[in-house]
Amino acid sequence: MKLKDLLDTAQARILWCDTARENADVRHVVAADLMSDVLMMDLDHPLLLTSLVTDQALRTAHVVGAAAVLVANGKTPPPEMADLARELGLPLARTALPKFDAAVALGRALEK
Fold it and tell me: Which of 4, 39, 54, 107 has a 20 to 30 Å separation from 95 between CA atoms?
């Protein structure tokens, strides 16, 4: 599924994304706040769903080759996080949905 369409299913607001990455194909979602768990995943270009608003989440997503980072629970990433997302070329979005509800919506969308 295209990244932009997937983010729409989670009622996400894109904070930064270049046009080329909006159409990236996403087949997996990883919902985690422990970045060590994310580092153990072996998935191609997953969407990282987290409630962390730290640089660590972006840096971890970059290391594992994530397609984007979606911050849940209505948290707003600080400007420094958006700046790092631009620097890494990693799309960043936020949703007001709780992480569980966002994970369910994303999972259902990927099943189609």
Answer: 39
Whole-model pTM over 0.90: yes
Residue 93 exposed, middle or buried by CB count within 10 Å (0-12, 13-18, 19+): buried
The pLDDT tens digits for 46-80 are 999 999 999 999 999 999 999 999 999 999 999 99
Q: Is the pLDDT of residue 112 over 90?
A: no
